[in-house]
Hints:
By secondary structure, the protein is α+β, with helices and mostly antiparallel strands. It has one domain (2-173): Gcn5-related N-acetyltransferase (GNAT) (Aminopeptidase). The chain contains 5 helices and 7 strands; from the N terminus they run βαααβββαβαββ. It has helices at residues 12-27, 34-44, 47-55, 107-120, 136-143; strands at residues 2-6, 59-66, 69-77, 90-98, 126-132, 148-157, 160-170. It has a 7-stranded mixed beta sheet with strand order 1-2-3-4-5-7-6, sandwiched between helices. A hairpin with a 2-residue loop joins strand 2 and strand 3. Helix 1 (12-27) packs across helix 3. The protein starts with a strand and ends in a 10-residue tail after the last strand.
Amino acid sequence: xxxxxxxxxxxxxxxxxxxxxxxxxxxxxxxxxxxxxxxxxxxxxxxxxxxxxxxxxxxxxxxxxxxxxxxxxxxxxxxxxxxxxxxxxxxxxxxxxxxxxxxxxxxxxxxxxxxxxxxxxxxxxxxxxxxxxxxxxxxxxxxxxxxxxxxxxxxxxxxxxxxxxxxxxxxxxxxxxxxx
Length: 180
């Protein structure tokens, strides 16, 4: 049984660990220098960083549990504007990660539906995210939620440069999906 809960400060270590594991499962093979990957973990998935992020009122996290075992999480950042969308009321889907062994269980759908329901209650007019161009599974997933490509950009981690698609959805076009 899958349960989605809004995360609290007390779950920072769970989110940090899920972040490291899911990032490794999805992206580690792109890194030639493993130290770059380890440095990124410390910058992005340290418990202190997640604790700090959870304390900010514009960040909202959800954790997915499978029989009480944490298996994924999502993060929405309110008031996260971007130059690629000419609007000042944007929310950013910063993270949605699910452990590889649970990808076929519609966990991503449930996390996304929670996140989108919350987004729909905000004053934000657009939601946006960046997704690695090579991540076909993620691109297919976001397409099912009507997110459209609005730009491309690069992001560097250590020595590696990654190409991303920026996807966006205006609230007026949003319709929640259910797992099929």
